[in-house]
Amino acid sequence: MNNSAFRALSYGVYVLSTWDNGRPTGCTVNSVVQITSSPATVAVSVNKNNYTHECIERSGNFAISVLHEQSDPSIIGTFGFSSGRDTDKFDKVDYSVKGMLPVVNNAAAYIVCEVEKTLETDTHTVFLGKVTDADVLENKPPMTYSYYHNVIKGKTAKNAPTYIEEKAEKGKWVCSICGYVYDGETPFEDLPDDFRCPVCKQPKSAFVKK
Ligand code: FE
């Protein structure tokens, strides 16, 4: 089987969010699909190891913030490469409460859902949600997964349904948190001490040489 075939599918980049006993939490996801239009339903696939997964099971609802091409990449880093179990991810991100759920402001649109059904796989749950609120936020082109991968040079979190292990070229400096590979013109060693990973905003010290 050639896993590269899956790269031919189109995906977006989204923040999936909900409440954790009154505290907003969430994670980055890339598998969101509209299933029906009337009544509007959407499905989202979430890894069972993600803290957001158990929070959605408890709360019975979720919101999807659709990131756009100019959304701050650190949003993806914050929501994709740390756990809501021990981090208040929304502390670092500008958000609003829409349809009673927390949504990221720096996004193209939001969709709020009530969980209607679930489909279990070994690793992921597909939540089917009935849409209770949705609106456009910032009128910019939505970020596709391929834009994130090829233009922002971001990597896939291990829990994503689309994760394929990638090996960085030998000698390259790689962010140990999000997997971003530094390929700028300035040698990595000569970068200023305040250099931060453009994806997850971790300091220079978080990079390792392959
Ligand atoms: Fe990083």
Keywords:
single chain, 210 residues, 3 helices, binds fe (iii) ion, Rubrerythrin, domain 2, three-stranded antiparallel beta sheet, mainly beta, seven-stranded antiparallel beta sheet
List the helices and strands and how they pair.
Layout lengths: L13 E7 L2 E7 L2 E6 L2 E8 L3 H9 L1 E6 L6 H8 L14 E4 L2 E4 L4 E12 L3 E13 L8 H6 L22 E3 L5 E2 L24 E3 L1
Antiparallel strand pairs: 1-2, 1-5, 3-4, 4-9, 5-8, 6-7, 8-9, 10-11, 10-12
Bound molecules: fe (iii) ion.
CATH class of the largest domain: Mainly Beta
Spatial order of the strands in the main sheet? 2-1-5-8-9-4-3
From N to C, what is the helix and strand string? EEEEHEHEEEEHEEE
The count of domains is 2
Strand content: 35-45%
Distance between the termini: 28 Å
Residue windows where pLDDT falls under 50 for at least 5 positions? none
Number of helices: 3
- Rg, Cα atoms, Å: 17 Å
The H-level CATH homologous superfamily of the largest domain, spelled out, is Electron Transport, Fmn-binding Protein, Chain A
Classification by helices and strands: mainly beta
CATH architecture of the largest domain: Roll
Name every ligand kind in the structure: fe (iii) ion
Shape: globular
